[in-house]
């Protein structure tokens, strides 16, 4: 039996990062991975290869999923090169301007290798002895940047959606405990839960509605507040809505402001909203998944005034901190509210650990097993530095302003946010005659994507499709912006006249 076990273990040695065989295999496979990535990127001259979704799907489905006896990694990469690697979106290309999908820093990519190699699980200290305190240190670092008090706390998350969910969860449970003396964690929703409401702007991220649905309150519990011409929440409309709720016996337990809307990059008036929430005793949550990147900006940091007055804040590092997905943070002004989601499991985070001063981060998260994403942020802060990070953010802001000015000065375009608050520019090709602008602009966006050259996004404004450039890459130049505009004009010309150029 002992001999058999030894033989079996020897057969597995090269598959794991331990021992001479495993370390040798790791070194060789990392070299192969590096070569595979470089091989593809050396040929990349546009953001996407330019294929339809049907073509990509067919190529993926033509592959075998597994092998009985295994194959050499080099052979596997060669097989995956065309259908997977080449068919992927190259977000590091300076003309990839569609979504809040950033080019990852090389430092972050390198840290990802370490995260995978060490495979720490962030739920209990005995699974992540050093990583636990790295995360604790970085939570404190970001809380200080936001100017939260000493009792603030937080936890790394998968991104903005999870952070917004945590904000709504804790706001609901804190309100029910304070207003009704009702412990939702133990007893479920209170009898009058159908009267609970959250307010956010019409431009807020969909994750606010999604969170309320998952929390058992339903999407209808989210009350949209009108925005002004700059797509920011209107404080007067917020007051009026709250007054109406008070008269009808509803229970508004949170206001979710947005610091950087997905489409327009608009920042709600945080100071004014904070005043309203403070006067009425309402939880103030700020979704700064996008706008939080301005914390390092020298030219635009003032736009975050009022962020420090929030009860909870969403930050997202796989946007303007240029981290590989996933990497987000949820911050809480009063860390004591974390108790509202804490649960003790004897095998994982027993109360005795807490009494002994052992920090088990599962007490602060809606996840159990969780990645050591804080390492990417630490490595980035140390190797890149806050000054250069701020320069990168400011560079994208300047490029976005150039794009808005260039589009606004062209007779064929309407620009929805001619003075972009952040790095997103929303515009529409006008067309001529009785052309359906919405249909035409949707076709333009799709044609550009399947051509694979400039990649831009689409959205809907007042019922019509508009185009959108989200500029997150500091390497995107004014020349890239001009090339994108020319590509839009060419695509429009082909759709309207059948010509080859504008």
Summarize this structure as a short list of keywords or feature phrases.
502 residues, alpha/beta, 16 helices, 12 strands
Structure explained in plain terms:
The structure is a single chain. The strands form 2 sheets. This protein has a 7-stranded mixed β-sheet, sandwiched between helices. The chain has helices at residues 2-12, 19-41, 53-61, 73-85, 106-118, 131-146, 160-180, 184-187, 207-214, 235-248, 270-280, 351-355, 374-383, 386-408, 437-451, 478-496, and strands spanning 96-97, 153-157, 196-201, 222-225, 251-258, 283-288, 312-316, 328-332, 413-415, 424-429, 455-461, 464-470. With 502 residues, it is of the alpha/beta class. The model is unreliable at 1-7 (pLDDT under 50). The radius of gyration is 25 Å and the shape is globular. Helix 2 packs parallel to helix 4, helix 5 (106-118) runs antiparallel to helix 13 (374-383) and helix 15 (437-451) packs across helix 16 (478-496).
